[in-house]
Amino acid sequence: MRYKDVPEFGALYGVKVVCAAMSQAGPYAAELMAEMGADVTWIENPDNMDVVRMRLGMTGESERRNMRNLCMRIPTDEGKATLLKMLSTADIFIESSKGLQYEKYGLSDDVLWQANPRLVIVHISGYGKYGVKEYVDRPSYDPVAQAFSGIMDLQGFPDKPPIQAQVSMLDYYTALHASTAALAALRKAEKTGVGDSIDVAQYEIGFRCSANKVSEYFTLGEYTPKVGNHNPNYAAWGTYVCKDGAAVMLIILGVPSVKRICTLLGLEYPSELFPAGKGNIPIDSEGATVVEAALKDYCDTHTASEMELEFSNMRIPCCRVMNYEDIKTNEQYAARETIIQWDAAPGSRYEGTKITGAAPVPRFKRNPQQIWRGCPNIGCDNEDVLLDYGLTTEQISELCEKDVIVVPRSDINYF
After folding, report:
1. Which residues have a Cβ under 8 Å from the Cβ of 278 and sit 6 or more positions away?
2. Known catalytic membership, residue 284
3. Which residue in 50, 171, 196, 388 is the catalytic one?
């Protein structure tokens, strides 16, 4: 598909992004831009296709929307020359690999900037582009980075081994940081004509997103052990199982919430156990014992839906732990159209069906996002993409003859 045939929409219409990343973090950073109208070209290596081509669910359909696909062998001489031709007019280039892979290809930042001085370059890797060579050279995926960042050791229960935070949490954190940084650098480049290179080490994102835990340990020497689903410091903060076996998440934080839960549970407020002006119930206090016992009695006699409704009506932060069956019929999801449908792309294994999934977020009032295409089949836009980037049909034919640009075979299902 030629870009002139793509709907004009979104805050990033006219921005050109080339993404030579695979798995989740890099492509999702690009997809966020594609959902805002950017022209995103996803370059895929025919010798090592993106893992979303494996039959591992619908990751591709969920996280490769609005992209055009070019199947090209970048490490070849002709592939590198073609990439540089594309980047000469692109705004952002995103790649994910081990730390110095592109330097080994002969495609350092300086080489890319010779082609386009205003290019914003985003490198995503597990351990970063510099540091101890042993780490820089290591491969990584989301769970491995979770393990190295320390964030995995915060997950789970004290009597069990650490668990991986689902679903690909660190990939999404990384993508959000990468896309924010890329757009900040693009804004600067548009003003100065000088691009930037962004080094995104996935483990550092996990470390940074560990909230107060990092400073508490490195400043105060305090380490938060695994605590499961309840707050280690305050009572009435965690998941509670009701009489129907369903769980509710409850958080009592702030003076109004303490006062309201005492009223709802028939506890005296203010009192010695629940002093006026106190915005929490310390876990080691007598008040904690009293309120937890009262909560157990309440949960033993109410369903999760009843608890959610009554607590919420009292303006206490509380919600049933929703599953997808609950979400499917939830009126808030319906009212905001949080679940949408789009057409599967031609050539995909879902061709001819409607894909149902999550809508683009957050919402723009004046420049709303759109989904105009599902996950593209490998190499389906080879000629159109290269024509858009200034190559001639003769040059494209020559690249195909040299097997630099790969035309997918009709007898192979690439999904």
Report:
1. 255, 258
2. no
3. 171
